[in-house]
Amino acid sequence: MSAVAREYIIDPEDQARSELYDFLGLVLAKPADGQLLAQIAELRGDETPLGSALSTLSRVAAVTTPETAEREFNALFIGLGRGELLPFASYYLTGFLNEKPLAKLREDMAERGIERAEDRHEPEDNIASLMEMMAGMILGRFGKVTSAAGQKTFFKAHVEPWAIHFFTDLETSGTSVFYGAVGSLGRQFMEIETQGFDMLPN
Q: Within 13 A of 43's CA, how many CA atoms are on the CB side?
């Protein structure tokens, strides 16, 4: 997503959340190259379920080649005609691409001043773009920092209804190892975010 660079004082917890959203957006937007794999291999998690998922991903990245990552990515998301998974909200929620969930997302993007990046051609309701949008709202990339209530509204409308399902499908895919570990990390994070937003008043 295109954004205006801004500087704000961000709470450390929110900074960590934005970094994880950005990371998921990056790793799901295109096949991981050698540099990204090497960076992931250096990451260390703690004893929490999320930290354990991060540690597992780190270990898998250390033995994954760029060629392997590209093969997995293509089999999962591109394939011959289509990949194993279609990482779009419209598909997960309606069974078809370019349906009402995408139209509603575009309305919300316009209201929030979020524009699709010029180098992106896929529908905006793909998982990578939604992860980037969440990070951008936390950091104020779209003109201002979005409040926790505003983040909750967006998350509940466009991410929660399908993201855990998608990441679970990715985690349990029989054709991926590296991206399976990405799926586990994403599922854990989405569950934490869901619980956190549920604790906020409506």
A: 23
Domain spanning 12-28+86-198, CATH class: mainly alpha
Cα 135 to Cα 16, 22, 95, 119, 151, distances in angstroms: 10, 6, 27, 19, 10
CA distances from 102 to 92, 96, 157 (A): 11, 11, 11
pLDDT tens for each residue of 136-147:
999 999 988 999
Sequence-distant (≥ 6) Cβ neighbours of residue 144 within 8 angstroms? 6
Q: How far apart are CA 2 and CA 136, in angstroms?
A: 9
- Each residue of 30-42: pLDDT tens digit? 999 999 999 999 9
Residues 6 or more apart from 93 whose CB is under 8 A from it? Answer: 99, 101, 161, 162
Residue 54 · residue 185 · CB < 8 Å? yes
Angle at 172 between CA 178 and CA 103, to 5 degrees: 90
